[in-house]
């Protein structure tokens, strides 16, 4: 059968036309495209999350630290392998860090609802510790070792840290945020050095439930209940417990920490006046010292709770005549049974100083200095004796030009034990015999003064160069002096972890220095 070409072409044309007509009859809906829009309600850097009325801002920094003469990042060589000042002490320690923060805000009929999260990712070089047999192991703390004590590839100090995670709503702050007790500069009145004494100021935030009332003209009042366990417990020390010094971490020479479970948060009140000329702040904290048992079980009994307290004044003066942007920051603090509000968690090895040095005393191997600052001490059958401290810190920051600035900073703290506590530690004759020190010092000790009081002084300077916006290079040099009140010699039991032999050591004041070099890019 023959079919003409004209018939075939005509049929195709009819089919195409019919198909086109049917397609034209179907409803067609264009896919919605949502664009990210700038949110100008809360300052630069905020954007609307597509499809919502919530604004979000991402931020953070990348930081690289190199420290000379320290085994830990930026807190000084005041204990452990750093304080040993021998071949276990690092000539340098290196840290690289990335910080990420997420800030969200939503306008509601009750005001702005804000959430804030800040986390860090760190890699820090670590230390070697002795095995007591002529061998060493790297990064010994918190790692799992093979049976032959070989490092099994555990991360030296690769860590993730949550600094802040809080909600703010209708005047309330709920979650992990800077303590309301702290001054706005926390522990950094004009420094990068982490270890200043002289005031509260953990930089990594503390869990809290806070209400802040704003009275206008920069005046506000905050009332807060905050967790004490992470950063605000300096130690309730059982002087009757055995002491184990042969580890590379901080150790209380006088006794052993004996905390019970959490029972009460710290209560904080803070009044602040923040205006163009600067800032004034008054802070108060109440801290419950809740000890466990004198011995291993409930049958041994326990001391009663002892409430401590801390008070702090802070002052910032801006726009001083020495130059645009120059600032003076000052604060002073007094504590009674609440030591961490003065000697904060990174300061002076958090009140657990054990520093070795040279000696000129015949028959002594080396010298050693102790500076121990818990919240309370107690003996079996006795009640807690609070430790009293006082301190201050401050800095002057001068801007040479928009790219260069230099600061001079310093801090000082004093630690004082009650006469009863000194008797517990030093014995009835005040020479260390019969007190808790006799659990630690061996035969052959000859103390001419037994007094656990001490002072710590710090002085430093920092210079920063910002060649382009948000990129800063800094150098920070810190000197620390430990003024201890012990005198004479002791038979130190030794510590294989840091290579210290059991020998006679002179009790002596100690000095240390630390240099921090930092590069930081904010974004």
What is the global morphology? globular
Nearest-integer average pLDDT:
88
Overall structural domain count: 1
Report how far apart the termini are.
80 Å
* Proportion of strand residues: over 45%
Structural class given helices, strands, pairing?
A: mainly beta
Largest sheet, strands/sense/barrel: 16 strands, antiparallel, barrel
Helix coverage percent: under 10%
Question: What does this molecule look like?
Answer:
The chain is globular, with a radius of gyration of 30 Å. It has helices at residues 5-25, 80-84, 348-351, 419-426, and strands at 47-48, 54-68, 92-108, 111-124, 128-130, 136-138, 158-169, 172-177, 206-216, 219-226, 236-238, 256-257, 266-275, 278-289, 306-318, 327-336, 352-357, 366-372, 376-378, 385-386, 388-401, 404-416, 446-449, 454-468, 471-484, 487-492, 503-507, 510-522. The chain has one domain (35-522): Porin (Beta Barrel), CATH 2.40.160. The protein is mainly beta and 523 residues long. It starts with a helix and ends with a strand. It has a 16-stranded antiparallel barrel with strand order 2-3-4-7-8-9-10-13-14-15-16-21-22-24-25-28. Strands 17-18-27-26-23 form a five-stranded mixed beta sheet. A four-stranded mixed beta sheet has the order 12-11-19-20, with helices on one face. The model is unreliable at 1-24, 141-155 and 246-250 (pLDDT under 50). GO terms for molecular function: porin activity. InterPro entries: Porin_alphabac.
């Amino acid at each position: 059968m023959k079919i003409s070409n004209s018939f075939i072409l005509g049929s195709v044309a009819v089919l195409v036309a019919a198909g086109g007509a049917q397609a034209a009859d179907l409803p067609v809906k264009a896919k919605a495209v949502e664009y990210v829009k700038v949110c100008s309600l809360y300052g630069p850097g905020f954007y609307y999350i597509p499809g919502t009325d919530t604004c979000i801002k991402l931020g953070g920094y990348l930081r690289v630290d190199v420290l000379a003469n320290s085994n830990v990042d930026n807190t000084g060589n005041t204990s452990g392998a750093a304080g040993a000042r021998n071949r276990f002490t690092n000539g340098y320690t290196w840290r690289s860090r990335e910080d990420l923060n997420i800030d969200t805000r939503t306008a509601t009929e009750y005001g702005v609802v804000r959430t804030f999260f800040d986390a860090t990712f760190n890699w820090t070089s670590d230390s070697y510790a002795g095995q007591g047999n002529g061998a060493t192991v790297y990064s010994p703390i918190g790692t799992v070792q093979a049976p032959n004590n070989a490092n099994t590839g555990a991360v030296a100090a690769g860590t993730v840290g949550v600094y802040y995670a809080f909600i703010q709503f209708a005047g309330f702050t709920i979650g992990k945020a800077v303590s309301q007790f702290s001054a706005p500069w926390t522990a950094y009145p004009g420094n990068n050095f982490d270890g200043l004494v002289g005031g509260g100021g953990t930089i990594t935030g503390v869990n809290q439930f806070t209400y802040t009332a704003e009275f206008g003209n920069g005046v506000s009042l905050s009332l807060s209940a905050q967790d004490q366990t992470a950063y605000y417990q300096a130690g309730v020390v059982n002087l009757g417990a055995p002491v184990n010094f042969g580890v590379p971490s901080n150790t209380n020479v006088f006794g052993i920490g004996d905390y019970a479970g959490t029972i009460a948060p710290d209560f904080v009140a803070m009044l602040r006046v923040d205006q163009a000329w600067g800032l004034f702040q008054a802070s108060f904290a109440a801290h419950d010292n809740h000890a466990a048992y004198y011995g291993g079980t409930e049958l041994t009994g326990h001391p009663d709770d002892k409430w401590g307290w801390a008070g702090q004044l802070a002052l910032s003066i801006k726009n001083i005549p020495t130059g645009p942007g120059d600032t003076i920051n000052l604060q002073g603090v007094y504590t009674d049974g609440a030591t961490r509000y003065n000697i904060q968690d990174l300061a002076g090895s958090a009140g657990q100083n054990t520093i070795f040095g040279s000696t000129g005393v015949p028959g002594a191997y080396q010298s050693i200095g102790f500076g121990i600052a818990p919240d309370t001490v107690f003996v079996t059958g006795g009640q807690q004796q609070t430790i009293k401290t006082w301190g201050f810190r401050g800095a002057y920051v001068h801007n040479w030009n928009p790219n260069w600035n230099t600061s001079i900073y310093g801090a000082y703290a004093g630690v004082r034990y009650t006469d009863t506590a000194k008797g517990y530690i030093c014995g009835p004759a005040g020479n260390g015999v019969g007190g808790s020190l006799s659990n630690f010092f061996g035969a052959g000790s000859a103390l001419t003064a037994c007094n656990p009081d001490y002072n710590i002084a710090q002085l430093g300077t920092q210079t920063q160069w910002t060649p382009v916006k948000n990129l800063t290079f800094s150098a920070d040099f810190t000197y620390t002096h430990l003024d201890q009140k012990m005198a004479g010699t002791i038979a130190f039991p030794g510590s294989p972890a840091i290579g210290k032999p059991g020998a006679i050591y002179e009790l002596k004041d100690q000095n240390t220095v630390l240099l921090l070099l930092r590069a930081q890019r904010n974004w």
